[in-house]
Specification:
Alpha-Beta Plaits, single chain, 444 residues, 15 helices
């Protein structure tokens, strides 16, 4: 077997694979023998079918399958071993392959068109500095935050009947399927809340899941990632939790901030202001990551094989999009591709890896966000155990295998963003909250 790479430009190449009879014949002969052993053809005893008949019936298809497998493996190994930075997929030179005489040829030659990314480097020293903002919150933000804490920071009680805003614990049933779970009232459509409000413990509620929850994600989280759930379910209410209005006292201070952290309302307000500032610091860090990524895209030049990519997009979409439609969105395609190449280069240089435990932790955080503040409250481990179970189910759902990839990519991207910010030159600017909101809105 012989493989050669011919570059017509720095980003366009032709890969030619020459296959001799000796490269494929042993495997083809072995498969023909296996077919002969297994063939059940009228008029012949098992295993006694003439080899010539097996060759006539199956020889051509076995040859094509074997060569296709050999080609796929050979091309991918060549790309990997030679560290070719390909974009898209290798595209067979179809007209040449159509001229192959599978009945008479012994030696074959196959050609593939390759699109390559031009050589580039991510040199942070050559990237202009980006701004980072020191966001200063004031009394307005403090008072708004305190109002929310008062509403959500009181004692958790277990009322007899459901009100809007409660968390309802119980068991779903549909046919033989059952699932213990929790339903936050915020995940219920307004028009469906009447089914729940006023219901007492041990009540059996019957409702259509599609007509009840605000979106598919809410259905998945409430039902333990039950796939494809439709129609009516029953739900037995086993417990109801509600957070009462807080009273300003030492017990409240200890509950919100930790025992003995503060001992007066003045100290409490000061500590809450520190928390607000920390939150805005995270917002600023997020904005910095966006600006840093934009700076890289604006200043790292990568040559791409435009015509190859357009042809490849037409081919893989199998007629779903016209060349005109692809052309209209092509700049965005190139931007996404360039960003992927930049991220991969940074990941390689910084040896960035993602472990399963990191993916699981991020998934748990996502689920806690769906449950809101109640997701982290309670005096026992029942909520944490439920979140752990839902997260594990979400990542291992065989019917939604992209769940794991999605969460993996989020962790991977976050690590790359951290690496970018750590290497980027920054300039600090102090602004108030309103200025920050204007800047953030301009990015939407």
């Amino acid at each position: 077997m012989n493989i050669s790479l011919e570059k017509s430009t720095p980003v366009n190449a032709r890969l030619v694979v020459s296959i001799a009879e000796a490269d494929y014949k042993p495997q083809v002969d072995k498969k023909l023998k296996d077919y002969r052993k297994q063939a059940n053809i009228k008029g012949f005893r098992p295993g006694m079918v003439p080899a010539q008949l097996i060759q006539k019936m199956y020889g051509k298809s076995i040859l094509i399958d074997e060569i296709n497998q050999l080609l796929g493996k050979t091309v991918q190994e060549y790309i990997r071993e030679n560290s070719l930075s390909i974009v898209g997929d290798p595209m067979p030179a179809q007209e040449e392959q159509d001229r192959i005489d599978w009945d008479n040829q012994k030696d074959f030659e196959f050609a593939y068109n390759l699109g390559l990314a031009g050589e580039f480097t991510v040199d942070f020293d050559k990237i202009p500095a980006v701004k980072t903002y020191d966001i200063q919150a004031g009394e307005k933000e403090l008072n708004e935050t305190l109002e929310n804490i008062m509403k959500n920071g009181g004692e958790q009680i277990h009322p007899d009947t459901v009100e809007d805003g409660d968390m309802i614990f119980g068991t779903f049933t549909q046919g033989e399927w059952t699932e213990k779970s929790a339903i936050p009232m915020k995940s219920i459509k307004n028009e469906a809340k009447a089914t729940f409000i006023g219901a007492a413990k041990e009540a059996i509620l019957t409702f259509d899941v599609q007509d009840t929850f605000v979106d598919e994600k809410s259905i998945e989280l409430a039902t333990g990632n039950k796939t494809g759930l439709t129609g009516e379910v029953s739900f037995v209410i086993e417990d109801i939790t509600r957070t009462s209005e807080a009273e300003i006292n030492q017990a409240f201070f200890d509950k919100i901030l930790g025992e003995g952290k503060v001992s007066s309302e003045e100290e409490f307000r000061a500590e809450v202001m520190n928390i607000i500032q920390s939150n805005y610091k995270r917002e600023s860090e997020y904005l910095l990551k966006i600006d840093a990524e934009k700076a890289l895209l604006d200043n790292v030049s990568i040559e791409l094989p435009d015509e190859f990519l357009k042809n490849w997009l037409v081919a893989i979409n199998e007629g779903k999009f016209t060349p005109e439609q692809i052309e209209a969105d092509f700049d965005n395609v190139k931007k996404d591709l360039r960003w992927t190449l930049i991220k991969n280069e940074i990941a390689t240089k910084n040896d960035i890896k993602v472990e399963y435990e990191e993916v699981l932790a991020r998934t748990k955080d996502m689920i806690r966000g769906q449950f809101g503040m109640m997701g982290g409250m309670g005096n026992d481990n029942s909520m944490d155990e439920m979140i752990d179970r839902i997260a594990t189910g979400y990542l291992t759902d065989k019917n939604k295998q992209d769940n794991f990839r999605k969460m993996f990519d989020e962790v991977f991207t976050a690590k790359i963003s951290d690496a970018i910010v750590a290497n980027m030159k920054v300039e600090n600017k102090t602004i108030d909250v309103e200025e920050f909101k204007q800047i953030a809105d301009s990015l939407v």
